[in-house]
Amino acid sequence: MKKKNKFFKDLQKAFNTGVSFMLPAVVVGGIFLAIALATGEATDAGMEVTNPFMKNLNDLGAAGFAMMIPLLSGYIANTLAGKPALAPAMILGYVANNPIGEGEVQTGFLGAMIMGVAVGYFVRWCKTWKVPATIRTIMPILIVPVLTTFVLGMIYIYIIAVPIGAAMDWLVEVLSQMQGSSAIVLGLVIGAMTAVDMGGPINKTATAFTLALMSEGVYAPNGAHRIAVAIPPLALAISTFIDRKKYTPEDKDLGISAFFMGLIGITEGAIPFAVKDIKRVLPAIIIGSAVGGALGMVNGVEALVPHGGLIILPVVNGKLWYFLAMLIGTLVAVAILHFTKLNIDDIEKK
């Protein structure tokens, strides 16, 4: 039992450390993107930033977001196994957050967390090897990083990513079959899929499905999806505003950034909160997004561009219900967080 408790305490410490190193990238990326996108124009390709200065600001924000998942993965592994684990985990975190392999699979922050933990324990094992002194000097900078990246990278690409890609193809087929059935069920499913991995493969599957329908002139599923993308960051932001005892000072600061990310439809603003308390945060935002998606579908909301948040309100059919569905879904998630999340003092006593 003690070993089991130590394992989970090590993981919790690693996740918290990963989040703390990731936070500046989230904040920088979120603020820059919010400012840049606020000046953009809604087009068929999404929000398009045309001002040259704002384009540069948008690129800086995108760079911050590109770095946040590798930082998360890297410092999870670094906490578990030290410096030799940092580079391999950052590389594999980047791989997890970007399309790779024949199926162009990406697993997002969940995949990056798994790879961070895997790298940490693999490097710990490597450190137990008995090798000659001459080889031991090059172990941390050559042998361990190369071997770790190769072995775990191949396992990820050929063993982990392949079934995920097949599952995503199956999900698209299921959604296609549901398209002509109950609007409320389809809205619930799209909303839940949007929040479950916040930019990962399930979220991207919902995006691909709604984009395919948009090309056929069907915009309601995209409306549900674009309502749902804003709910996780908005819910966590509002929760930090009203339930102050449940969040650390850095969480409260991040809540401000998450609020603006929610307004412009960047779901990833909720990721740091989910990493730190996944068993309470994830159910809350999944349910809230599902409610928002269902309300949007039932009331015929149509988003005419592939972007989300209140920033696209001018190009939405059914503006009132777009706003109300987003608000109600957000408040549902906030209420669940209020009743399920522990106060910081209670967590420290455990």
Automatic annotation (TrEMBL):
Family annotation (PANTHER family): FRUCTOSE-LIKE PERMEASE (PTHR30505), FRUCTOSE-LIKE PTS SYSTEM EIIBC COMPONENT-RELATED (PTHR30505:SF0)
Predominant location: membrane
InterPro entries found in the cross-reference section: Bacterial_PTS_Sugar_Transport, PTS_EIIC, PTS_EIIC_2, PTS_IIC_fruc
Entries under Pfam families matching the protein: PTS_EIIC
UniProt KW keywords: Cell membrane, Membrane, Phosphotransferase system, Sugar transport, Transmembrane, Transmembrane helix, Transport
NCBIfam families to which the protein is assigned, alphabetical: PTS_IIC_fructo
Membrane topology, from the record: Multi-pass membrane protein
UniProt KW Glycosyltransferase keyword: no
PTS EIIC type-2 domain mapped to chain residues: 11-350
Transmembrane domains' residue ranges: 21-40, 60-78, 107-126, 138-161, 181-202, 223-242, 254-274, 281-300, 320-340
Name of the protein in question: PTS EIIC type-2 domain-containing protein
Top-level division of the source organism's lineage: Bacteria
Subcellular location: Cell inner membrane
